[in-house]
Structure to design on (222 residues):
DNA sequence: CGGGTTTGACCGGCGC
DNA sequence: GCGCCGGTCAAACCCG
């Protein structure tokens, strides 16, 4: 996966024409995240997630340049670092296996099951993965990143005008989550935060450039 | 019926 | 403890 970071940074030059932060081109433009300073597992994590959106990125850049379209995306993807960095070693652990409850599990009252679930949740919390956020200027909240998501919650967050939505990847056994919320400060911007690594390939192609464009606010000038 | 969303309840962590 | 807050569950609901 070493091709990833280089490929990614290679798109830097095409973008940063101006220093104005508001006119960064497309997500993932410019510096992203220094892989060197992080655990290798983190790199994989990123790749696992980012390939979803990075597929055909260069292609799209070229295409955009041809079209002279400039999607306005304020996007310095943020690494939301967890305080417990020393747990990185566990990131590669595979917790995606199904928790098949054995048939011999006769203590089958809901309480037991719930307890079990709690334990697992606690465990997974302990080894919480890094999260990565992207800011995208867009009218629609749900940006198609090629994976299928099921919404499992929505919450009003303090000091925020807009609610935050919680999604989980619907693929069986895949535990990736994401949160989506619109900024109070600039309600044209949607922040998407990913957590975890997909245990499966992407479900559908993301190289539909037209479709991506429809989700973004764009300038047709220049 | 099989998948998704909605939405209030619930829960654990944290600061006081 | 207690109350707040963010995150999750799950029953109800919706829809092709
Ligand atoms: Zn997934």
């Amino acid at each position: 996966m070493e091709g990833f970071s280089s490929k990614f940074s290679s798109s830097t030059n095409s973008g940063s024409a101006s220093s104005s932060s508001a006119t960064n081109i497309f997500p993932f433009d410019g510096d992203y995240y220094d892989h060197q300073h992080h655990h290798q597992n983190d790199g994989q994590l990123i790749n696992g997630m980012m390939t979803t959106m990075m597929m055909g990125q260069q292609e799209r850049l070229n295409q955009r340049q041809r079209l002279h379209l400039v999607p306005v995306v304020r996007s310095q993807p943020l690494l939301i670092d967890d305080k417990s960095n020393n747990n990185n070693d566990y990131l590669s652990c595979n917790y995606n296996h199904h928790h098949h409850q054995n048939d011999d599990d006769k203590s089958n009252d809901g309480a037991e099951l719930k307890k079990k679930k709690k334990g697992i949740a606690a465990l997974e919390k302990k080894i919480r993965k890094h999260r990565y956020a992207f800011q995208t200027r867009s009218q629609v909240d749900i940006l198609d990143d090629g994976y299928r998501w099921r919404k499992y919650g929505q919450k009003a967050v303090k000091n925020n005008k807009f609610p935050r939505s919680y999604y989980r990847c619907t693929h069986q056994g895949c535990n990736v989550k994401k949160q989506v919320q619109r900024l109070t400060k600039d309600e044209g911007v949607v922040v998407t935060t990913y957590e975890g690594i997909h245990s499966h390939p992407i479900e559908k192609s993301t190289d539909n450039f037209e479709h991506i464009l429809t989700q973004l606010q764009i300038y047709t000038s220049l």
